[in-house]
Amino acid sequence: MGRPMRITFLVSVLLVLPALIAWGGEPPEPTRVKVAAVQILGYDKTDMPRPGFDPSEGVVRFVEKAADDGAQLVVFPEYLLGRITVPGPQTGRIARAAAAGKIYVVVGCWEVSQDGSFANTALLFDRSGKIAGKYHKVHAAVDHFEGEPPWSRPPQGKDDEWFSTNDPEWKMERGRDFPVFDLDFGRIGILTCYDGWFPESARILSLRGAEILVWINGRRGTVEDFLVKSAMFQDEVAMVATNQAYGSGTMIGQWPSQILAACTEPEEGYITASIDLEKVRKARRNSRNLRQRRPDVYGEIVGPIGTDHRPGK
Questions:
Q1: pLDDT tens for residues 235-263?
Q2: Which residues span the domain enclosing 184?
Q3: Quick one: which of 216, 234, 230 has its CA closest to 45?
Q4: pTM of the full predicted structure?
């Protein structure tokens, strides 16, 4: 190595040495991340595959758009790809788009196994296009009874027999865990539709270190912003929620309770926003809400439901 090259090398080392010392030899954690959320039509809960209809084409279009916009993660709704095998042609197209854009992708499908069983699955693609994780919906959402709201009562008796035969959510293989996934910018957890109505779901993911909760939906009406805000506030997380375009409420939220962007109408939509991860991390480091928990008195949470009190009884 000649003298000019040695001098150049030494100068380069001296320039980067302070940064290396500050990092401890590792690059610093990102403090902000740009995410995208897509409200789009795909397969619904009960839809069977239809010739000529392939929602993965729309997914690829928005993956490319999100990557061009500088997003690091793009999230799609529940059910979207329909009944597919994993891996398969649909996931292959999405994998190639994720790899080309070097972007993380979350998208919902009915994942069908060789034995014919199926699960309501959220697929996570990493920046190389690999399926880096799956989340299987834990809580079965069944259609509401005629004239009653969907939260009125669960199937039972003859109703249970009907739902067991006709409702795919009642027949699906239900998840048994709430996994978290380490991405290169932070840790995420995934919930699917009805899971978000159970506060235990978000709390478990938060306790496992999730900084961003991804909540994918596929339902009529709107995703409830009050559920998003309460989960963010109580569990010290940011959130990305999606819905199919026959509904609305796709949104991106920043801790503690700010909605950064939202799709308010039942139509195709696409939003982006930058989440302040350092704000979330600071909240989690200093949270009284998490550190003053009393698990010793929470036993009833995992017990059977109590009997409702009736006056005079």
A1: 999 999 999 999 999 999 999 999 999 99
A2: 26-139+174-288
A3: 216
A4: 0.86
